[in-house]
User: What shape does this take?
Amino acid sequence: MFKVAVIGASGLLGRALVDELAQQSDWQVVATAFSRPSASTVVLDIRDARAVEQFVEREAPDALVIAAAERRPDVCEHDPALARALNVDAVRTLAAAADRRGAWTLSISTDYVFDGTQPPYLHDSAPAPLNAYGHSKLEGERAMSETTDLGCVLRLPLLYGPIVSWAESAVTSLVPAIAASAEIGAQPATMDAWAIRYPTFTPDVAVVIRQMLARHARDEAIRGIVQWSGDEPMTKYEIAQRLAEALQLDAQLTPQYTPTDTTPRPHNCHLASERLEALGIGRRTPFDEAIRQVLAAFAWRDTTSA
Ligand SMILES: NC(=O)c1ccc[n+]([C@@H]2O[C@H](COP(=O)([O-])OP(=O)(O)OC[C@H]3O[C@@H](n4cnc5c(N)ncnc54)[C@H](OP(=O)(O)O)[C@@H]3O)[C@@H](O)[C@H]2O)c1
Assistant: This one.
């Protein structure tokens, strides 16, 4: 039986991945969480090296996927020690423990390792992060390559997918402001029309990871750095327009053509997905279709939990 450990299974990407892997009847999944455990997860603090080593020894997975991280740029900017502990040191500990057991490690990284000035970026383009989050993730990539030969880094851009709160994804976090702008007498909502993003659906990423795991299961493990991205460029202003349309809201949106964030963010980090595409790996659900699925599932969840 092929056994996969998913570290950070309570997060946006981790949940989609566990849902996808659960459909593989001949695979076994062991999933970890930290502050949001459930009946189907094991509690693991990845900053605790001893606990990580014991977990890997005990579970003896064939592959380990690291979806746990501190991924909020503002938090990383203000707490670089936390960013390093999760995005660098924990990656090293997990990859070392997996390597000792001969398990393949897949670590998730970000398009923010690039400065966004010269897209598209290939997997071997020169990284130049602009903020503390990007720096920590780049160091995490280096920690992986220094620690194990039996590993792979998968870089991803802005993610959205099934959510447990609007704030969970930078795509759906726009919804409250969009809805407020549609109230009678409300002020328009200002939306960033400067930064270009490629929103990527977590269930599609989960398929990509499942296909990568299947190659490892066939002794054809992918190593080094790979990238996956949606193929529809849009600014947050355009994302907000599409969300308003999907929600049938008469939103008042004002584009802002200069950067708005206090933490520096790249302009356009389009990731070329050529390595995975050449292997026949990938799936891309159109944004308008995927976002309607996300909104419908969240509305249903909201109704049933009310
Ligand atoms: N979200 C994006 O737009 C985006 C874009 C590009 C790349 N990425 C990368 O994709 C990966 C997944 O991101 P995500 O959006 O799914 O993140 P997320 O929703 O914030 O989930 C983070 C996960 O990390 C776990 N975690 C936090 N602190 C931990 C600790 N001390 N010990 C063990 N686990 C801990 C959380 O567990 P609890 O919730 O149970 O505490 C949760 O499962 C990350 O590597 C991120 O950098 C994300």
In short: The first strand starts at residue 2 and ends at 7.
